[in-house]
Every structure is written in C-alpha cells, then in structure tokens.
Amino acid sequence: MTKLPENVSLITGAGSGLGRALVDRFLCEGSHVGVLERSLEKAQQIEADYGDAIVVTVGDTASPADNAAAVERTIEKFGRLDTFIGNAGQWDFGTALRQLPLDAWSAAFDQLFAVNVKGYLLGARASVDALRETAGSMIFTLSNCAFLAGGGGPIYVASKHAVRGLITQLAWELHNQVRVNGVAPGLMSTEMSGSVALGQDRLSLRDLIDSAGGEDEFARRLGIPFVPAATDYVSAYVLLASNESRTTTGAIFELHGMLGPPPSPPT
Q1: pLDDT in tens, 174-223
Q2: Which family does this protein fall into (predicted)?
Q3: Is residue 233 among the annotated active site residues?
Q4: pTM surpassing 0.85?
Q5: Of 50, 120, 156, 233, which is the active-site residue?
Q6: 221-225 — which CB contacts under 8 Å span 24+ positions?
C-alpha cells in the first residue's frame, strides 16, 4: 500500500542528489510530481527518465516568475497541489570568515541566500494559495548546520538557521491552513555545489569526498561508520507529506545524528 496515493508534489532542485531521490520515492509512493530545476541538462534527463509521470519546469528558484510557472504547470497537468518541497541548495564548502575574499563576500552571500532562503520563500509564496485549497503542506530541506556549527562556513550556517525561522513563522501564519515542516539531513555524497563568487560552482560535495580518498576514507576521518546516501533521508519527507503527520506543523525532523564519535561515557 502506497503512502501518498493521488498526492501531487512540487520539488525544487530535483535533478540530482536528494531531490532526485525524493522524486524516485514519491513516485513509488503514488504521488504525482512537478519539478523546478535550474539545469537544462538535468531537467531533460529527469524528463526522459520519467516521462508523463512528472512535469518539469526549467527555471531559477530565486525567480518569482519561475516559481509561479512551476506551480501553474504542476496544477495544469495534475489538477491540484498538495505538497511543496523547497529542496534546492548551495554550500559554501566551509569557507571561514577570514577566508572570505573582501571583494567577493557580498556577492557570495547574495548568491547563497538567494538559493537557500529566498528560493524557499518565493516557492512558498507561489504555492500557498493552491496548498490552502487542499489543506496541504510545505517541507523545507535544512541540514545539520541549522542546529550546529562546523558543517559549513558562516554564510551557509546562517542561511540554514534562517530557514528554521522561516518554518516557525510560516507555521504560525498558516496555522490550520497549511502544515509547514522541515527535514535536516546530515552528510551525503551529492552534486550540491557552491557559489560562482567564491569559484565553487564547479565543485561538489562528491568531489570533496572523492578527493579525500572516497567514502570509506572520508567516513573514517569523520569517525562515522559510513557516508549516508540521499535515499537514507527521504522517508521523513514521505511521512511529513502524508496524512500520517496531519497534526504536525512547525517541526523539523533532525536526521543528522551521525556527526562523529559518541561522547565519552561519564566516569
């Protein structure tokens, strides 16, 4: 028995990594899926792989018009919208404060916040009226950096803390109309890149792991048993999109427990 029968979801940043894993799982659970993806190449690939099971809009999550178009196209194809998932993300590769070039930090801040915060807010605004009609839900992707330091630099960590505030505020504003929740994954090997301003747009998390000697060596250095896959995190999204969590709003599911060795036992 599927958990999302007849659900219609819109997922941003769904061309690879966690977004692609969400598309796979939501389709398996019975959902119809709309996608907003910036990369034309990735959009064409996901469209070729799934055909009529999805509808793809090529666009930028930081664009109000592109968000509106993705919502409109999803509803036009499937008749409604039940779930909006803000998932597109950008990392700063842990660039510390004193490493930020003085001539680039402002542009880097704008670029990263445009994806990680502005894009979520614009997606929420574009989808809210349709979600109110279906008593649907919004789900936002955070990270361990929404709660802890050290998983990124100050720009990235600040952006993920900002999304915590966004969830809290929207859950309050949309109380008894639309549920608003989040999922905070931990480490995973994906193609998430960094900002153009910092010269990180051609790098990815996967590149970082590969340069360290692969997943086994990277996990060993961090003191964790393995590097999680994107598929390790998707069940929380399914739960939050389903009726099984119909009483849940303003919550963030923290899935980033594998951060290093456990603390020493008390003596």
Answers
A1: 999 999 999 999 888 777 777 888 888 777 777 778 877 888 887 788 77
A2: Belongs to the short-chain dehydrogenases/reductases (SDR) family.
A3: no
A4: yes
A5: 156
A6: 222/187, 222/259, 222/260, 223/260, 223/261, 224/187, 224/258, 224/259, 224/260, 225/258
